Amino acid sequence: MPLPDMNLLIALDALLEEGSVVAAARRMHLSPAAMSRTLTRIREALGDPVLVRAGRGLVPTPRALALQGQVRSLVEQATEVFQARDEVDMSTLARRFNLRSNDVFFGAFGGQLVEVLRTQAPDSSLRFGPEGEGDDDALREGRIDLHVTSRRNFGPEIKVQQLFTTRFVALAREAHPIFEAPITPERFARYDHVSVSRRGRPHGPIDTALASLELSRRVTLTTPNFHSAIFSIAASDLIVSLPEPVLWGLRELGLRMRPFVIPLVLEPVSVVQAWHPRFDKDPAHRWLRQTLKHICTTADARNAGVWPAA
User: pLDDT digits over 171-218, tens only?
Assistant: First the structure.
């Protein structure tokens, strides 16, 4: 029995991840026609269509989905065999790093990470995916390289490193009536609020803190991300509470909004980066982790206490 062609495994991995012949061809530096011929060979070898058309796109067959994790693992193992473990030339490395984070992290640090990549690893790229529910195996299966988050309930084998600790602050338009007098818990609760929750939850730690003072607020808008919440308060008397790093980007944009300290006792938020131990010895992945840590530490120190004053 002839040995399988390793190039077919690499191509299958690219096709299943990209879900597109054109995108997979670009990733493997092939023409779309060549990748289409490779897909035909994969179909013949597996006896399965692998990818079938659905509307304008392609979707994997059940067998392709069942094989995806195994194919990814085999490609990673083969790559490790031929890859130097202790060093890598980032200036010539062509690799796409897949990160998962919410819009807070990307808005505050994404631009700096892109700039470092442009200067130190110009042939590599980033792909940020949103946080979601029910996908805890993404790190384990190698579909993402890093997960940047404030959550802690990862599997026992997942490696975690703290990036920074931050606090929640409030934001309103510059002429909001809340600024006409000292901001007390009672005045903070008096105005309508925006709740940011990808799960659609209108209540959280702020409501718990208010309840301890026998107060409550009225949440009239729930939105899945902070940037849509910010735009919603521009022409209204709504108030949004958000992690302080969001303010760093707003200051650069010069938006006519004013932050203030929330007059409640709230727990600080610790943000971490998490990865699977298979990447511990990978020098490119180590470079990514160290770069992220440096960017976050530097930005946190540079912006600490700048806006608003405690």
Answer: 999 999 999 999 999 999 999 999 998 888 889 999 999 999 999 999
Token output for 39: 């897909």
Look at residues 48, 65, 50 and name the one whose alpha carbon lies nearest to residue 11: 50
- 96-166+269-303, what's its fold? D-Maltodextrin-Binding Protein; domain 2 (3.40.190)
Closest CA to 219 of 235, 252, 196: 196
As a whole number of Å, the end-to-end CA separation of the chain is 72
The domain defined by 168-260 folds into: D-Maltodextrin-Binding Protein; domain 2 (3.40.190)
Q: What is the mean pLDDT of residues 119-134?
A: 83
Domain with CATH 3.40.190.10 in the chain: 96-166+269-303, 168-260
227-251 pLDDT tens trace: 888 888 988 999 999 988 888 767 6
Mean pLDDT of the chain: 86
Q: What's the rounded Cα separation, in Å, for the pair 217 and 16? A: 47
Task: Please name the CATH architecture into which domain 6-81 falls.
Answer: Orthogonal Bundle (1.10)
* pTM check: above 0.85: no
Burial of residue 299 (CB within 10 Å: 0-12, 13-18, 19+) is middle
